[in-house]
Every structure is written in C-alpha cells, then in structure tokens.
Amino acid sequence: MSRVLIVCNTVLQIIFAVNLRFTEFKDDEVDLIISDHTNNAKVIAENSRDLAAFSKVYYVKSNKLVRRTAALESNGKFGFIKDEFNKEKILHQYIKIKKQYDVLLAANPDKFTNLLCECLLRRNPQLNYFMYEDGLSAYCVLGETLKQQRHARVSGFHHIFNCLIQKKYPSKYVKGLYLFEPELCTWDDGIQMLRMEKINRDNEELLNTLNEMFGYKELEDHYPEKYIFFEESYSVESTQVNDIALVEHIAAVVGRENIKVKIHPRNSKNRFKNLGFKTNINTFIPWELIMLNEKLEDKIMISIASGSMANPYIIMGMKTKSVVLMKCAKGDFGRSGNIYNKFLYEEIYKKNPQVFFVPSDLNELDEILDKLGC
Length: 374
Prior knowledge:
It is a single chain. The model has no long low-confidence stretch (mean pLDDT 87). Helices cover 36% and strands 15% of the residues. Strands 3-2-1-4-5-6-7 form a seven-stranded parallel sheet, covered by helices on one side. Strands 10-9-8-11-12-13 form a six-stranded parallel sheet, with helices on both faces. It is an alpha/beta fold. It has helices spanning 11-21, 41-48, 63-67, 79-85, 87-92, 111-123, 142-150, 156-164, 204-214, 243-254, 287-293, 307-316, 334-349, 362-372, and strands at 3-8, 29-35, 56-60, 103-106, 128-132, 174-179, 192-195, 227-230, 259-262, 278-279, 300-303, 322-324, 356-357. It has 14 helices and 13 strands.
C-alpha cells in the first residue's frame, strides 16, 4: 500500500482526484489537499474530512503564495538563499504536514506545489511525482509551462549555489501525466502520458463521495429547458466578448422560455438574470457533477468555447449535442486562449461532428438550431 497525496486547486481537479482515488489508487492510503483557489473550497474540505475515501483532508490557503512574483518569502538579491534553508518552515506556514509520501499528484506546477514537492523529496528521495489533467488546457497549454520550468536556467552565483546544495527542481521529477485521452495531447517534453479511467456514473462509491463533498443534495437548480448556455469567465478577465448578443440572438430563434444560462462560478455579477434570462442559483456545484447525477443527454449545450461542453464527452464518454460559437464570437482571447480554442476545434470539435456543431456565422447557427430542435 502506497501513501498518496493529491493537491487540488479547482473543483474540476477535485472531481479528477476522487476518480483517481477510486481507480488507479483504490488500494492505497490517500490524503487530499484542497486549496483556497476556488470559491467554497473550505466548505468542500470540511465536507470531505469524515469521508472514508481519504485518510486526511487538508485545507490550505496557498493562493497568495502562488500569485507572488518575488521569492517564496525573503526579499532582496540573495533572498533565495534564506528561503532555500527555510523551506520546511515556510511550508509549515501553509500546511503542517510531517508524513512521508510515496506518491504526489498535482495538476498545477505552481509555487506551493513546487515547495511541497521539494520538501517531500527531501524526506523521501524515492517520491514518485505525477501530474494529472486540469481540464482541456492540459492537452495544449500545460506543456509550455512545464517546458519553461524543466529547462529553466540560472546563472552566476545562483547557479553555483544550486549546484552546491544539489537543489531538486520538482518539474524535472515529474514521472508522468494522467490524462483521459493521452492521444489528444499536442505537446511532448519527454513526460510519460498515462491514461486515466473515465468517470463512471455507475460507481456508487465514487458518486456518493463527490455528492457529499459538494453538498449535492442541497442543489436548488433544475434544467427542464432544452437549451443550456454556458457563460464563461471573460468578464472577470476583462475580455470584451459579444456573449450577451449571441444569447439574445439564440433566444429570438428558440424562444426565451426554452433557454437557461449557467452562470460561470467566478463571475460575481449575474449579467443574464438582469436581462430577464433564467439562470442557475447555485454556482458552486460543477456542471460535470450535475451531468453525473442527472439525465441530461437530450439537452442542447451552447457556449463560445466552454470546457464544460467538451468535458462530459472527454471524461465521461457522454455525447450530448453541443453548439460551439467560437466562430460567431467577437473578442480578443489572447495567446493562450487562441491556442486553447484551436486545440478544441482541431482535436475535439472537428473530429466529432456528430456531437459538436460549429457554425461559421449566425445564419448557419440558425440552421443548426432549427435542425437540432426538431
């Protein structure tokens, strides 16, 4: 039996971590870290502590550390020296963890995860460090981040110091990356791609664990409407996109009463409710968990390029009809957004035209809606 520690920063990562717990690591002792990177994280952690699935659950406030642009703690030209000799002490400011682990799993190679990994490697040099999928960006964007870390170069005294102390760079210790569809990955940096089992809604132990963690019984939302539009986090990121105009256009075609807007959990302002659209009340329960619990395969999902439309297909094998508006949308998605959207189109939407419909303009959108609504 291995001692396993899994780090989670998002609700999707929590779902994937639970899936790993009941598949790849079903016979092991598994501890879980849930960070404050996502809304309601503390409540989810508290709901998880008495569950049989995990030996121990930690709630960690690491968001401020991850967003620091300077050294871990010390400032100044040689602050990294002080930090290097105080890493256990720094780690204990965020999590008091003294156990040795055989396996560490994380989805984001951020400052907290790297700090944790370095400390665990010092305790157990044979630690096996794996990464796991953090949504669809892992297939196209993660590689660039890992490559920068794995091939980072420092010069002068910093380099000499790192050689003298035999510094361990966590990103260079990554043994493999768990993905639901490894063959879709568009990058290769020498890391072994490992297949993660798809999430099985018939696995009662897995589903009950997730429902308890997220408080699913308290869900107030229902989705009798045929059309579900997924808002994305563009407004939070100050990206100007014509999503409201697109929803208004769709409502004019299918009827305002037949569409429901699922609000993005990071958007504090409900823009669509103010415009008279029906929206969900609870934004903390992830759509993927709703799909696992409810029979929604007959719905038509619509968004510009939300991963919540592709995720049920990739992680659960569901083939819910989906309309992708990326070619109808107007906005600047940035470099990483463009890479992400290109991956979705080339590797998922284009290769599965029976599931994903990508109109080139509003006229084609109307034709698709008319066809799917029959």
